Task: inverse folding
């Protein structure tokens, strides 16, 4: 009997098909365009995307304005460093980073009992700044302003791991292919399904053909192996986290978050201890922020400086969120990709338009971004697209009550 | 003789110099509808806030079904079966009508169910059924997929009530259920309240201004003025009380 | 030792006066509009740089201060009318806008004047750097600054309590709803308040120039301290901001002299403690 468990799994697959497709496509990138530089850049984008996702849980989904989100992120990054310095295995470091992130965020969240809104925001700003200022001085712990070398886990330099990842990728691709094939009811859908499979096969074929002349042949070099493995791991972690967060937002806790954002006083009156639930959200967001920090330290950077805990990163994640659209989950991730991609390429763009020194004025560009987004695109890219592209009821059903900016 | 399910003893609330509620003794019997009336500023909403835990009393007690609830936070009162609707509408404007009630009903599941990350909230059949039942009783069943923000004022009132009913409360506090409702729509709101009584027979405590509503719904009336109770009795008795008429009609805004 | 303590005390008080002028602008804007004006710090910096520029051209310090104050009021009013007004009713977005403005103004200043900044010493405006008082060397300008600060406080107090416009500003800062009840045009009042607040920021920047200098880091430093003062003193409370500024100024200067590592941590900790214990501020009766 194909119902029950199998049916549920299949519908879950169907609901997340775009996530899976994107994962497969992103994972094919190293095989199709194997530039080590770009792979490192995209790896960084995954990290910041996860960071942005964790912030959307706090601001977008629950409506809590936190100016201290860099704290769980930065502490997560350093946690990995400290644990690996201590000689413990990588997986333990990641767990430590996530736990430290959760604890930090919950510590900030306890102030919600006393203060709300803008006052809470100032509290979080001060909290994170104090941590930053203190740790910056502890040179033995953090390396001071010059930082420490990123703790790169050894097992990621193993070239054989690339094949493991490729295996996972193949399984995912097969899932996508199967889904496309078996779920198509109409003729049009079937045609699209076959077209999709053909494209997929072509990409894989090209990659395999490219194998000899491509990066895979240089796999014996630890840098190459590391870059590839880091890329795959980052992609895996980011997409898996996105799935978990998306799943969470459809769970009772997710519905509670959205309702708290809408009307927290009424939520108290109908029986929810909103303070406790907010703390739970802060913990979950802290877990993912810590994971992003861990990814940053071990996969996406060369050095880790105390800067990761400073307001710079909080400001960045705030920008990703409003650019993408707070509350949409996917919006902030896209916002992160856009901003950071621009950041990496600003030099090239500058040269192209004849203003080569524009890279020095990145902060000015960020400022202009802020002003422009707030005035022109308050619902963010994804938020605005959602409002325009569909009937209002449909929008509400999908975004489940969130998806817009609330003052 | 019906038992008393909600009782206050000497309930008093002071905000600095001002006494909002002064030494109120209230006794509400099971299954009855008890109206609290009085001119603006008489302390009626503050009384509700005190009973529901939104505000802590300066002195006095609140006893619900024999249990002392003085000073408990609002979410604990809800768990004890006390539901409340609001004078200033308090709904989830950007959620659908169904979701407004469903999320309220979900709170009955307790922390363990609510923190389960693997279950699906929006497709929970049990909660949806309960919500649709409640919406049916207040007369909003056909509007359940609509966003709450586009409802008419009287429908919003009904929704506010429906949210309070989601957990099937044994004691229901309605704060001006006909507030802001146009004259033509008042009968339908009153009918909704009557439906609720017919279906579940909760104990009702009602703040109201409109005589029409009071006469058709209330069994007993407590009259307040400037924080204190000045008269109490059955609806008929109060209607004929001259002192009350003077106080009330003379100063209703 | 005595000299250090005396200097720390004077510096603390006069730095506090600077902070007061700066923070009062923040406080009245927050009181009426619920907006944390992040751009305030950048305006402060712009005021400092402009004062230096005008002085370099005219050699008249007082003229520079007045010009900068007037310019600040205009810039503030224009900013509010064009950028903040469309976001009325959405304070979070207004805050984000001011954040963006902070970076834009900050970077523009750097673009125009370069990364080195300008320093205007007291000698340039015709005063000795140091004088001898009770056997200790103290910095004269800071004393003058303290006096100027008190004078400004008195002027501000007079303005808020005795003039028509001032009373409206005060009413609006304390309770927007109440002001509306009294028939005050909130939108126009908002423009006026933001203008006044920004003018104060520019003015504080100008006054600070001979001491702090026009250097790039002033914007963030002052902004952070300004927020701390406003929260510690109590939003919307004049006396609260005044006393809070003195407190933070003293803490800041004493740390600089005796325990430099905690210079910023100490004020931050004070703010954290105040937020947890008495969110409406140590001296204020504002919204908590």
Result:
């Amino acid at each position: 009997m194909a119902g029950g468990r199998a049916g549920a799994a299949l519908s879950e697959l169907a609901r997340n098909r775009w996530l899976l497709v994107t994962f497969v496509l992103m994972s094919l990138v190293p095989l199709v365009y194997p530039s080590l530089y770009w792979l490192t850049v995209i790896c960084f984008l995954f990290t910041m995307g996860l960071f942005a996702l964790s912030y959307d849980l706090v601001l977008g989904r629950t409506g809590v304005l936190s100016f201290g989100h860099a704290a769980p992120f930065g502490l997560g990054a350093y946690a990995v460093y400290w644990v690996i310095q201590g000689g413990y295995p990588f997986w333990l470091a990641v767990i430590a980073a996530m736990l430290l992130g959760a604890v930090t965020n919950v510590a900030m969240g306890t102030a919600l009992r006393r203060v709300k809104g803008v006052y809470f925001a100032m509290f979080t700003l001060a909290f994170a700044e104090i941590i930053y200022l203190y740790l910056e001085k502890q040179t033995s712990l953090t390396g001071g302003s010059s930082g420490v070398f990123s703790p790169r886990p050894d097992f990621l330099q193993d070239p054989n791991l690339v094949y493991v990842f490729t295996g996972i990728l193949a399984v995912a691709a097969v899932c996508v292919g199967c889904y496309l094939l078996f779920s198509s009811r109409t003729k049009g859908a079937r045609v699209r399904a076959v077209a999709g499979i053909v494209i997929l096969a072509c990409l894989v074929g090209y990659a395999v053909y490219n194998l000899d002349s491509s990066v895979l042949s240089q796999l014996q070099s630890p840098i190459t192996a590391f870059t590839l493995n880091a890329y795959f791991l980052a992609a895996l972690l980011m997409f898996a986290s996105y799935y978990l967060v998306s799943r969470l937002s459809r769970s009772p806790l997710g519905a509670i978050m959205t309702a708290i954002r809408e009307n927290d006083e009424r939520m108290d009156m109908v029986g929810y201890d909103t303070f406790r639930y907010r703390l739970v959200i802060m913990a979950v967001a802290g877990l993912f922020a810590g994971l992003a920090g861990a990814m940053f330290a071990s996969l996406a950077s060369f050095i880790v400086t105390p800067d990761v805990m400073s307001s710079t990163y909080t400001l960045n994640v705030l920008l990703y969120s409003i650019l993408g659209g707070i509350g949409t989950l996917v919006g902030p991730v896209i916002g992160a990709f856009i901003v950071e991609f621009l950041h990496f390429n600003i030099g090239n763009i500058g040269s192209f338009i004849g203003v080569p020194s524009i890279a020095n004025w990145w902060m000015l560009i960020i400022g202009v971004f802020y002003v422009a987004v707030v005035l022109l695109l308050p619902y963010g890219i994804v938020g605005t697209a959602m409002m325009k592209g569909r009937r209002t009821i449909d929008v509400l059903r999908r975004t489940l009550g969130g998806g817009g900016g609330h003052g | 003789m019906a038992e008393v399910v909600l009782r206050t003893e000497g309930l008093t609330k002071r905000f600095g110099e001002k006494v909002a509620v002064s030494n109120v003794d209230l006794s509400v019997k099971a299954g009855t509808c008890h109206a609290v009336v009085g001119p603006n500023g008489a302390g009626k909403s503050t009384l509700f806030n005190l009973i529901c835990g939104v505000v802590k009393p300066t002195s006095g007690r609140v006893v619900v079904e024999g249990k002392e609830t003085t000073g408990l936070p609002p979410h604990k009162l809800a768990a004890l079966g006390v539901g409340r609707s609001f004078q200033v509408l308090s709904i989830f404007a950007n959620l659908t009508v169904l979701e407004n009630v469903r999320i309220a009903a979900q709170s009955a599941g307790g922390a363990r169910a609510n923190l389960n990350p693997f279950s699906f909230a929006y497709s929970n059949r049990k909660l949806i059924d309960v919500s649709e039942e409640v919406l049916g009783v207040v007369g909003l069943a056909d509007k359940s997929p609509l966003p709450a923000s586009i409802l008419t004022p009287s429908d919003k009132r009904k929704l506010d009530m429906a949210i309070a009913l989601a957990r099937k409360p044994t004691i229901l506090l309605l704060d001006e259920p006909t507030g802001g409702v146009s004259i033509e729509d008042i009968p339908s709101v009153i009918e909704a309240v009557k439906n609720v009584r017919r279906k579940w027979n909760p104990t009702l405590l009602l703040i109201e201004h409109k005589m029409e509503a009071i006469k058709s719904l209330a069994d007993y009336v407590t009259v307040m003025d400037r924080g204190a109770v000045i008269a109490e009795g059955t609806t008929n008795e109060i209607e004929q009380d001259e002192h009350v008429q003077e106080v009330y009609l003379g100063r209703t805004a | 030792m005595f000299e250090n303590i005396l200097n720390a005390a004077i510096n603390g008080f006069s730095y506090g006066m600077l902070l007061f002028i700066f923070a009062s602008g923040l406080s009245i804007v927050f009181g009426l509009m619920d907006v944390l004006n992040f751009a305030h710090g950048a305006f402060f910096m712009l005021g400092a740089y402009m004062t230096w520029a005008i002085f370099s051209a005219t050699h008249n310090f007082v003229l520079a201060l007045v010009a900068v104050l007037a310019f600040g009021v205009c810039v503030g009013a224009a900013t509010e009318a064009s950028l903040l007004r469309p976001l009325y009713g959405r304070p979070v977005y207004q805050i984000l806008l001011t954040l963006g403005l902070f970076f834009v103004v900050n970077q523009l200043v750097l673009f125009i004047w370069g990364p080195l900044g300008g320093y205007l010493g007291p000698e340039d405006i015709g005063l000795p750097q140091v004088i001898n008082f009770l056997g200790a060397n103290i910095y004269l300008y800071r004393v003058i600054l303290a006096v100027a600060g008190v004078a400004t406080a008195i002027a501000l107090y007079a303005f808020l309590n005795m003039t028509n416009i001032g009373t409206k500003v005060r009413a609006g800062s304390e309770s927007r709803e109440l002001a509306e009840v009294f028939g005050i045009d909130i939108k126009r009042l908002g423009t006026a308040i933001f203008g006044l607040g920004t003018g104060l920021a520019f003015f504080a920047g100008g006054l600070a120039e001979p001491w702090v200098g026009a250097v790039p880091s002033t914007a963030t430093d002052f902004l952070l301290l300004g927020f701390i003062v406003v929260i510690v003193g109590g939003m919307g409370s004049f006396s609260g901001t005044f006393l809070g500024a003195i407190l933070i100024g003293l803490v800041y200067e004493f740390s600089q002299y005796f325990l430099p590592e905690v210079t910023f941590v100490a004020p931050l900790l004070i703010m954290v403690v105040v937020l947890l214990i008495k969110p409406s501020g140590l001296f204020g009766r504002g919204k908590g």
User: Anything to note?
Assistant: Confidence is low (pLDDT under 50) at residues 400-407 of chain A.
